Amino acid sequence: MSRQARIDLHGYAFVLPFLIVYGLFTLWPIIAGLRMSFSNVSLLGGSSPFVGFQNYSQALHDPAFWAALWHSVEFTIITTPPLVVLGLALALLANRALPGRSLFRMAIFAPFVLPVTVVTLVWGWLYEPSFGLINGYLAQLHLPTFGWLTDTRTAMPAVAITTIWWTLGFNFLLYLAGLQAIPREYYEASAVDGANAWDQLWHVTIPLLKRTTVIVLILQVLASLKVFGQIYAMTGGGPDFSTRSEVEYVYEQGFTAYHLGYAAAMSYLFFIVLLAVSAFQFRLFARRR
Amino acid sequence: MNRTHQTLNRQSVTRRSFLSGSLAVGAGAALAACASGSGSASPGGKMTLQYWNLFSGGDGTRMVELVNGFNKSQKDIQVKATTLTWGTPYYTKLTTSTIAGQAPDVAIMHLSRMASFAPTGIITEIDGGLMSKYGLAAGQFSPKPWQMAHSNGQLMAIPLDTHPMVMYYNKTLAQKAGLLGPDGLLKPITGADALVSAFKSTMSAGAKWGVAIDTEDVNPWRLWTALYAQLGGGAIVSPDGKQVLLDDSTGVEAASFMRELSLVAKVTGPATDYPAAVALFGNQKAGFFLNGEWEVTTYQTDGIPFDVTLFPQVYGNPATWSDSHSFVIPHQRSASPDRLDAVMQFISYVQKNAITWAKGGHIPAYTPVVQNPAYQALLPQAHYHAEADHVVYDPQVWYSGAASTLETDAGAAFQSVFSGHLTAAQGYAQFKTALQQLTAQKPPQI
Hints:
The complex is a heterodimer of chains A (289) and B (446). Chain A is 72% helix and 0% strand. Chain A is mainly α and 289 residues long. Chain A has a single domain (55-285), classed as MetI-like (MetI-like fold). Chain B has helices spanning 2-36, 60-73, 88-99, 114-117, 128-133, 143-148, 171-176, 192-204, 219-230, 248-264, 274-282, 296-302, 337-352, 354-359, 367-371, 373-376, 405-419, 424-440, and strands at residues 47-53, 77-83, 106-110, 150-151, 154-155, 158-170, 209-212, 286-292, 306-309, 320-328, 363-364, 391-392. In chain B, strands 1, 2, 3, 6, 7, 8, 9, 10, 11 and 12 form a ten-stranded mixed beta sheet that branches. In chain B, strand 4 (150-151) and strand 5 form a beta hairpin. Chain B is globular and about 75 Å long. The relative contact order of chain B is 0.17. The A-B interface holds A 40-46, 48, 128-131, 147, 149-152, 236, 238-241, 252, 255-259 and B 88, 91-92, 95-96, 99, 120-122, 208, 215-217, 269-273, 276, 279-280, 405, 412-413, 415-416, 419, 421-422, 430, 444-446.
């Protein structure tokens, strides 16, 4: 065996465990799910004949499917800007040589390591309308209180606020790393040219963070579109299905109502949406100069 | 170059052998864990039975007592009970685990889910002979749960209890509000207006809310069902589940009373979830609590002055919503007569000791316990077990029952009536539309 072939063999050997798991748990389910979507197979295991695009057309005519899709999009629209902007803002603050800076960084990132059940449990009690902490403080300050998770107007924003608190640390970390990769000389040179802090931010920092911003945006938009855990745990899709996300609707149809074929079809329609969004983002950002 | 290569080789051989060694150890440990994890005999010859239930309320402590009592009462069988969250997650887990061949040996199922589970093969027929071996006979169970435990003439479950919706009241607040009779019990309250003013009077006596009601999830459906039945509503779907038989004006009137409670008379919060409702009554911030009887143990532990009475008669017919728990035996890939025998032994123990279960608030389905003077004297249970005669169950069709799509859709619509997001007529209309869609669907393929 030639030297190159042996190196290649080692390479494949290292990648093989991941490839096996990837094949079994990602690639194979994608193919099996596609097959499922063309039949009416149910969770109870019975076989079902090929029904063509019936499930797909049913989904496109299902108002709940469109409503759930809109809720996922709505969630993405209200969480992405704060998560990106606040992530950058906090990274800028944490990048300074302040005393206690590592404590500050840890505090911002700490929520991210919590599992979704812990976060939703804590925030569920905070949002409790009758005796939760948030309404308690609002009442003391003589401000109006809300039924945060039980009012259709506030349920989605409430879940969004919880999500922002929970996942901000990740974007913060990416931006912090990006900031620390900017050489100090750029700031010194711009100061010599008469730039103030705002000019430096706008003309030095942000342009040099472009690659980080691209990564953050792509990851954030995709993760927000796929939201499930915190909505399922905090509102169960309510009140009156006003927060039910697409993934949650797919889960309900597949596992609670047993219509696996239908759920599979909806998940592929959603997959197409996600592919389109990713392709659009790549087009927009990854233009090589 | 050669020397570096040699050093590297020695190092990489050491690392490689370490890695392959630990991989071998890990694989061996994993295989050993797989082998012993199949839930069969543990050392000492004891059989371990897996038992799943969804008793996350105050009644859960009573079931733990029963399981511990059974485990202590003999030395051949160890029952391991797992309590899962009430609701759709429980039934989803029960279904998927049975399909995957990982079902528990015995599980709890609401009898209202019989129509959705019996045709699927998830639960198996109960052997009447095995029942009598452990002293359980057909005639020993309350008639309605016993009838509901059958599907197509086959016995598919062993009823455990009936758990209706009742009314808890705080004795101190009721006393202050002048609602108690000379015997220290609540004076009977009949009619919508009398009920609302009774609730209001406890608010004047210091309660934050006249009545605590869980307005989220499926509880609004239960309340609406009770009110609809009290108005003489009758069945809401045909027995085959394909036709909606709702009476619109009755349905809207029932929903309007719910709106009156939260938004007009304002005797209950417009948006209270279950833990909050339990806590409101437990912290003595509510004069009354409309809920199932399963929180009796919670309040006894809290030590608050409370009692329980029948669900109020708001309209002409005395009626309340109810459901029943039962034991079912999920389908196993390889049926074992020994395990079935042990399961029946456990079920028989629980039935015979159902007075402990009754202390959790429920009304046992096993009549020898119900007729026992010790049960008859149990308080506050004695004040409401007559409720079992006037109960209305969910329609017995495949899309209905505890934590079903029907309950979820109905709960969502009537929750919005409580909160004001929808008017009574709109909420009822949304419910009716959802019900019509369900009647048009085909049951999932088996």
